Amino acid sequence: MSTVLLVHAKGGPPLGHVLSRTAAKADVHLLALSALPPAVAGAAAGLCASVVTPGDTECSDLVSLIVARAGEVGADAVLTFSEYAVVAVAAACEELGLAGAGRAAELARDKRLMRSTWEQYGLPQPAFRAVATEADLKAAVDSLSCPLLLKAAWSAGSTAHQIIRSPGEASAAWARSREVMAESARLGYAELHVAEANADFVVEEIVSGTAVDWFEEPGWGDYLSVEGVVAGGVFHPVCLSGRMPTVEPFTERAGITPALLSADAQDRVVALARRAVDALGLRDCGTHTEIKLGPDGSMWLIETAARFGGAMTVPQIEEVFGLDLVGMLVDQLLGRPVAWPEQALTPAQARGAAGSLVVLAVDERGEAWQDRRVWDFPVVASKVPLSPGSELSVVAESSLADGSVVPVYDPAAGANTMAALCLLFAADPRTVLRDFETLVSALPRVLPAAWREEVRA
């Protein structure tokens, strides 16, 4: 049987899902750069041939660490599903002569390089400037049109996003973004390979999106993602995932598979995603391309990642379309034949729909809850009325334990202040959307109130 070295770090699909699918294809050796979620630690021991957790000193040269460990276990493939380890794993694969994303992985990670590359190809995207200092930011604000969005070049999960509505807000936005990135690094949500990555930022104009011209019913967000893979340098779109509207500034609340677009609209979105991925020059990896939707068919590229979408995107695709993307990618990296979809799958080909909801202390109007609440999934499951046939569950490894106080939502920290991640299976995308709206509205009412002692703790 073939041998795979799986590099684990924070972010990406749930580790339990990834491990079980990888172990079905090869002997797995796990290199854990982040602590294993308690919910899967026991299962990991049974699924993996070895589990190694290096110390901080060993991680100082991450590529060398990965290369050495791959040599020790005789790895035929090395992969990761974490945004923060993508560049290091790609570099290690290059050194080892193994299939991987290739040297272009950095273009799909550093938002400055990504936007510069797309600019060279004339692809539609917001006007932007790379910034490394407060002086750079002030100069960029003077040359661009407010409102602007400041974001860290190497961040993920909408972390450190700051809206700048006037030039006078630039200094405060700069200070806050840097503060959040420093805190994220302490929590383990930071680039693991590039030194001083927390100091790199990009600022861009905020384009006016609309969902009205793209979806028949209200409630959808004005952006979506194209999930896909690059195999041997050739892009294969898999499907589209829709969204609920973001929470200010641009924190994702929910992803829904499939996105309920017309065939013509889906074809146009996929065509832009293909141009975006092709421009980056990736070789063998999953892809996740986010696109902003505008009026009259206009679109702007948000970003492309050299890995599959995070949260529950991968399990949702497996449930709805029957595709084990993790297992298929493992086969691809091992040189086995894989039947990737010839074109993006459509809602008509789906078996129902699935969605994941990030639980944030923000109501349906985007306003903070009026009081503190305690996360309690059994209460949610019993008290929130969902559509007949809908199945709701909680992703334990991505959620606080029942009885934990829900964090206050911090716009700058984004998904870092989530309380839980819920997964919903339903008859169709419309039902998922409506049920999520019901959940968002009900949570601040049905969850138990937090006592002051709990809040202090």
Structural overview:
- There is one protein chain.
- This protein is globular.
- α1 (15-23) packs parallel to α2 (38-47) and α3 (62-73) crosses α4.
- Strands 13-12-9-10-11-14-16-15 form an 8-stranded antiparallel beta sheet, sandwiched between helices. The protein has a 4-stranded parallel beta sheet with strand order 3-2-1-4, sandwiched between helices. A 4-stranded antiparallel beta sheet has the order 5-8-6-7, sandwiched between helices.
- It has 457 residues and is α+β, with helices and mostly antiparallel strands.
- A hairpin with a 2-residue loop joins β9 (223-231) and β10.
- The chain has helices at 15-23, 38-47, 62-73, 86-96, 111-120, 134-143, 170-187, 263-280, 313-321, 325-333, 377-383, 429-446, 452-456; strands at residues 3-8, 27-32, 50-52, 77-80, 128-131, 148-152, 162-164, 201-205, 223-231, 234-243, 254-257, 285-293, 299-305, 353-359, 391-394, 420-426.
- The termini are far apart.
- It contains 13 helices and 16 strands.
- The chain folds into 4 domains: 3-98, Rossmann fold (3-Layer(aba) Sandwich); 127-205, Dna Ligase, domain 1, CATH 3.30.1490.20; 209-351, ATP-grasp fold, B domain (D-amino Acid Aminotransferase, Chain A, domain 1, 2-Layer Sandwich); 352-457, Aldehyde Oxidoreductase, domain 3, CATH 3.90.1170.
- The chain is 32% helix and 20% strand.
